[in-house]
Request: fold
Amino acid sequence: MGAVRTRTGRKRAVPWVVVGLWLAALVLVGPLAGKFADIQQNRAVDYLPDSADSTQVARIQDELPGGEATDLVLVYHRDGGLTDADRRTADEQITEVSGAYDLTGEPRGIPSKDGSTLMYPVTSTQPGQDEKARDAFVDGVRDIADGEDGLSVEVGGPGALNTDMNKVFETLDATLLLATLAVVTVLLILIYRSPFLWLVPLAVAGVAAAVAMAAGYGLHELFDVTVTGQSGGVMTVLVLGAGTDYALFLISRYREELRRHERPYDAMRAALRGCGPAILASSGTVAAGLLCLLAADLNSSSGMGPVGTIGVLAALVAMTTLLPAVLVLLGRRVFWPLIPAFGSEPKARRSLFAAMGTSATRRPVTVLVTGGVLLGALALGTLNLSGSIKQEDSFTERPESITAMQTLAREYSERSSRPLTVIAPGERAEAVGERARATEGVAEVIPGRSGAGWTEIAVFTTAAPETPAETRTIEALRAGVDSEGAYVGGPSAQLIDLAESEARDRKLIVPLVLGAVFIILVGLLRSLVAPLLLLAAVVAVWGAALGIGGLVFEPVLGFGGNDPGLGLLSFVFLVALGVDYGIFLMHRMREESVRGAEPEAAALTALRTTGGVIASAGVVLAATFAVLTTLPMVGLVELGFVIAVGVLLDTFLVRTYLVTTASVLLKRRMWWPGRLSRAPRRTAPPPERKPMTANAP
Reply:
């Protein structure tokens, strides 16, 4: 009797110990989590690979006298032509800017052919690499450059564009976190129909998010991992979305076990044994898929791998340790008013997913073929995807730097207002300049700073920025000066390097992700056929979701292109996250098969018991990624849209109909070459599971 009391006392102490350890960890990592936003790097060059020409240019520029330069263009415009008073205003303001800031050279006004516009290129090394100092410089110039009485004054150029992007990313973390929490809160209240239960997984997810941010800060400080605004935002979505999904599966199983066990501690142990392996494998597939991004050439993609993995692992650990401890301490009353009583049976309800599964298995071949044709037809929409998005189209609400860029492109059509930057060895600078002048498509070559053995050269093209003609000029220029040991960079060159690196990464990362996920599935399901089926399903979903994006982005939303990383990142997330739901369904199907159920019965039972929670989890995950569509960056809107649509397709079409019907058609071949693929042993039916008392073994 004493031993029983001792064991009971230990059981009661364990949850308190777990909660105490988490509180201590939260106190320790809290200050580090607050620094996560400070380490995010959002310059275009921070996204590029080390080997790119434009990356080399940016690094060498940092070594030149004054360090990194901030380039601006002040644009003065009046419809119908500038007046003498407008020109005096421009001169006065440029003089004030020169007096307030240390500029590189005296700004020279360049008029447009029709006399309606005057642009002043302005360069300063005063801010250096300090982003806050650069943003303050840009804001200060904007305060000085002010138009009135019909005179339009806009501050554009690469420096202004970086500042406008920074302002978006500064508010992204807080906006994304609050919006995601609001969405998850509403969905959990609807799912649980309890005034208290929804608070528990939400609070635990918040703790996981704080731990993930602190760990992300540690990754950057210890291993110099690149953290961008994009990867930080995606990490937040992953922690809340994936963490809530794990909570849904665990709480659903825990509610089921509370009817069989008198004590919550024993019910939770049974719940963790039942769905723990599936949750572990689920998070493992996401982590494995994300870690494959470490092989990417792009700094932004390779950095997103470990940053996203940290988010998933933080969610996993929190939902399998802190959440169970809190639920056990709160007891059954947390489910009020729908409290699962010990020994009771759940209220009999008509299962929507059982009905859907039954209808699908009546004509499995027809359902499977129809579903496959539908996904294939939707995938054709990828043919409508535009090319890489231009910088001027990268915002949903255009800031001042973009409107300045559009004014320059319209009024200076005979030459580019955005120079390319050529960095040449000091002793070869003159020869490089001559080669640049001789390159077709080059309008003007202007020598710049020299130092540290290098010379900076500004090259203006005759073509507008980010056009095929400018791309041809950049390629010709690089071919011409490469033999001189020179590099060609600048904003337009960075975008070309970005697109080329993304194309290389897709060829490498896609097979790596498929291979890693396949290995995990084989280990969990002990089969080769079932993993191949799940992978084929998620790849089909990815193609269909991307196709729907092609039908929506430009025709409906008016986007002028697609982020170069959309294909790769959406593939990684949809494959890794989509397989999650397949794992929960297949794992339950395998449990039923091990108990002796026939293939069709096992498939329908798995769908009936997991369909509701998979649907809830799918809606939550889709909603969290859909929050990205509310942000003002087109790339994030497109990524959030494709992943949200893909998750919904996977949840309500692929899992419910296609995987179920394929399982019915394959029968025991689904588990080949494992033991379950062979003919069933003739054994007595498994005993009925009965409620267990607290002291039962």
